[in-house]
Amino acid sequence: MKKRILITGGAGFVGSHLCERLLKEGNEVFCLDNYFTGDKQNVAHLVAHPDFELIRHDITQPYLIEVDEIYNLACPASPPHYQYNAIKTIKTSVLGAINVLGLAKRTRAKVLQASTSEVYGDPAVHPQTEAYWGNVNPIGIRSCYDEGKRCAETLFMDYHRMNQVRIKIIRIFNTYGPRMNPNDGRVVSNFIVQALHNQDITIYGDGSQTRSFQYVDDLIEGMIRLMNTADTVTGPINIGNPGEFTMLELAEKIIRLTASKSKIIYQPLPQDDPKQRCPDISLAKKELDWQPKIPLEEGLLRTIAYFKSLSQ
Ligand code: NAD
Ligand code: UDP
Known about the structure:
- The chain is of the alpha/beta class.
- The chain has 9 helices and 13 strands.
- The protein has helices at 13-24, 79-84, 86-107, 143-163, 187-196, 216-227, 247-258, 282-288, 296-310; strands spanning 4-8, 28-33, 52-56, 69-72, 110-116, 167-172, 175-176, 201-204, 210-212, 214-215, 237-239, 244-246, 264-267.
- The relative contact order is 0.14.
- Bound molecules: nicotinamide-adenine-dinucleotide and uridine-5'-diphosphate (UDP).
- Nicotinamide-adenine-dinucleotide is lined by residues 8-9, 11-15, 33-38, 58-60, 73-77, 92, 114, 116, 172, 174-175.
């Protein structure tokens, strides 16, 4: 059945893939974005589709529309961008959550929150399960993002408990793929852009910190599966690829895959940079019958091809 679906942050990296997939499945898609880190170009190929609508709006302000489902993705995701205007970032998470939850309450829509592995902070438990409450600095430079997302989770659970709003919370681990903003400062886009231009690869710290990278198509599949679960399934559910790599391993892999002449250089580690991150995905396997399918090298090759196409 054709559904009317609102995607906040729909013109961003993840949002644009979600718009594409939900349109392909025959739905009507409303893509709402203020273009802070997103770009109309990411959805330019969808604009002529009769079931696609692009809306310029800032989610810190209420928005009224009749929909069946809401995916709440609006929020800058890369550290330099979310730290650029920290107060705006926390307002986007908190007021944005209140606004989409209010909308879901009025329209009885289901609403999915794009939460993050950052709710675990610099985790003392490894790998991270959903039962772990995290190790988060409330007053650091990453707090506007981490605590904003944690507060959004609280609001989602409280609207569910108090108003029976149908909610889904997904905790997304580092995701990469085509349509990442080449300038947004995240590690995969930085390293690929540097490698393709034979520039120095900038490792922050000694490169021993780890991350687990999932390809965007795997994330989209997990998001849609969670949205389609019974109303009793609220999450939070981790969605990520448990393959764990150090930043040095990632740099070496990207240099090899691009046949680059780049050299690795070391720069200071940003404050509160988590030392390790790896999802326990047992719950996603059980509740969603989901696990990632795209190995890191394959995903990196697809992403490298995208960044190459940008410079042609
Ligand atoms: P992105 O920066 O590409 O996309 C975010 C989108 O939200 C952009 O299009 C931006 O313009 C829009 N936006 C920002 N503030 C807004 C506001 N006030 N009103 C309306 N739109 C606004 O980032 P992404 O990687 O696509 O992330 C999408 C979501 O997934 C974010 O909520 C992010 O926190 C979450 N997430 C992403 C990752 C990842 O690795 N990509 C990991 C964990 C969580
Ligand atoms: N990083 C790096 N060089 C870069 C960009 C990031 O070494 O040019 C490191 C960063 O310090 C962190 C990891 O890569 O340890 C992942 O950073 P990203 O900003 O992509 O995501 P997050 O820290 O939010 O997981």
